[in-house]
Amino acid sequence: MKPLFLLAGFLHGLHAASLKPNKTKSCSKTGLVTTQDGVHLNYTQSGPLAGQKILFIPGWRQTAAEWKKQVEYFSSTGYRVTAYDMRGHGESEKPDFGYRISRFAADLNDLLNQLDLKDVSIVAHSMGSSISWAWWDQYPDARDRIDRFVFVDQSSVLTADPHWTEEQAKQVSALFDPIGVYDLADDMTAQTPPFVRSMFTDSISEADFEWVLSENKKISDKNAATLVIDHAFRDWRDVLPRIHVPSLVIAGEVSVNAAPGIAWVATQIPGGKSYTFTAEEKGSHFMFWENPERFNSIVEDFITP
């Protein structure tokens, strides 16, 4: 009888253990965050519930789905991954108001609070970096939520002052002059396809390009134009020296944004580090799409203690 008693006790213990929450269990979900001005933002979370937290923020006209190569990798290797669509973008609600960086920073703050993200590493692409800088500037009391930043291919000043010298514009990798910004906004429908194509190397497949372009078109040209004007005329140089968490700046040698000015951002952040993808590494504006293995490895090495 003793062996049967021991077996019964073992089975009881096994059953009890199965009822305890498994902190290593992977859980994927899609949900909505409601901003303070009543807009619903679509987000996804995947990976182990107790995994190290990482948040991906897309760029102008881009969507959370465009991070899928990173979401799949990091969630499968033990990270708790969050990605979201900004207002007007992707699967989020598309109001006719709020298309300014300060409002998008407030939206990010709402997301961090409602999902209770703490000790999170933010990986922000392009305009997503500007949103992160605006958030850091606007919400100093919430800064302790952030563990690390990875800023991907964003100039600290996107539009050159007409009074600057050529050297001053090059220092920050200013992409536009003022007229160029308004020309883009005024002719958004025609200019979006070639502008998006310029963000990739020639090796991108036509199928991939068409898919990315279709994601870009989920925000209306009207709202995208309003947003790009506000985005293009922001100057973040006074924010950078006040960032006190470990930060990595990623640039691309063949990006539409000149790499030296992107790397310069890292020199303005205390302890900032930088990495530039070479042409051989497909260092375009979308290096994370064109060379995900290298991108994921660099980010993982930086954010993992």
Protein described:
By secondary structure, the chain is α/β, with parallel strands linked by helices. It has one domain: Rossmann fold (3-Layer(aba) Sandwich). The chain contains twelve helices and eight strands. It has helices spanning 2-19, 68-76, 101-114, 127-138, 166-171, 178-186, 188-197, 206-216, 221-232, 259-268, 287-290, 292-303, and strands spanning 29-34, 40-46, 52-57, 79-84, 120-125, 146-152, 247-252, 273-277. It has an eight-stranded mixed beta sheet, with helices on both faces. The longest helix has 18 residues, at 2-19. The relative contact order is 0.13. Residues 1-23 have low confidence and may be disordered.
Tally of extended strands? 8
First-residue to last-residue Cα separation: 52 Å
Poorly predicted ranges:
1-23
CATH architecture: 3-Layer(aba) Sandwich
Inertia-based shape = globular
Cross-sheet strand order for the largest sheet? 1-2-4-3-5-6-7-8
Total helices: the number is: 12
Helix and strand element order: HEEEHEHEHEHHHHHEHEHH
Q: Structural class given helices, strands, pairing?
A: alpha/beta
Please report the first level of CATH classification, the CATH class: Alpha Beta
Q: Average pLDDT value? A: 93
Assign a percent range to the helix content: 40-55%
SSE layout and pairing:
Layout: H1 2-19, E1 29-34, E2 40-46, E3 52-57, H2 68-76, E4 79-84, H3 101-114, E5 120-125, H4 127-138, E6 146-152, H5 166-171, H6 178-186, H7 188-197, H8 206-216, H9 221-232, E7 247-252, H10 259-268, E8 273-277, H11 287-290, H12 292-303
Parallel strand pairs: 3-4, 3-5, 5-6, 6-7, 7-8
Antiparallel strand pairs: 1-2, 2-4
Keywords: Hydrolase, Signal
Organism: Cylindrodendrum hubeiense
Signal peptide: 1-16
